[in-house]
Fold this protein.
Amino acid sequence: MPSGGASLGVNLRHDAKIMTGPNSAAPSPADAADQAAYYAAALHALRFVEARSPTNRRFGAEADARWGAFRGNLTTADRIDLLLRDADAEWPAAFGARNVFALRAAAEDEAFGAEWSPLDPVDAEELWRRILADPAPADVQEALATAAADRGLRLAPLSVGAIGAAEKLIVAGPSALAATAIAFASGSDLDWADQVVCVATPSSHRQLAALAAALLNTSKPTLLATPSRAAKISSGRRLVVSGDATTEDAAWARAHANG
């Protein structure tokens, strides 16, 4: 990285302790398609949170000027990873690949980890231009739908009903995850990280659940669980499950729900 010069304006320190809860999925290395889809979903979500509360250091002319002064020999792939590291520090475990792909080798406060490979510079430049050409999602519902589409998911409408401030839920399936997050966005006195356990094994499901914390602007990470390893889940949780959950995730959620 270049020494001296202008600051990029992102926090490169990772001193926040990330608590991801039962992050128990088996490691799931990303192939090229998974990697590209992950980056697209993360950047579209970042466009939403930046539009919601502009910093002028992620996207736009001011951010481009800072990057031009800072970049040295760095590429657009490096810029994307720096932005996602910074966002992952602000919204713990929401944007990094470590949580999405359950990369156990990475440190708890590291967004990617040593085994992660960044995008090819040419692919990164193409993706960056495409993301900037798209309008930022207007609300949490659109942000979730966009991220889901990036990951090849089609969300189905689902009613979760009223959610009380003291109610605990266990949720499985991307459509159920999205519907629950949308309900939290429109609710009051609700705490996503405290009230919801998301059962999600596929990386696409995990990313949607992880991003929900940032989209809801909570400083605590989504609590993720999988059937692959025992996890302590408090009892008395209401089940919210959709037909697009994996068979194993749905069964595990039902087994741990109230009644």
In short: The beta strands are 169-172, 196-199, 223-225, 238-241. The CA atoms of residues 179 and 239 lie 13 Å apart. The first strand starts at residue 169 and ends at 172. The chain has two domains: 32-150, 169-256.
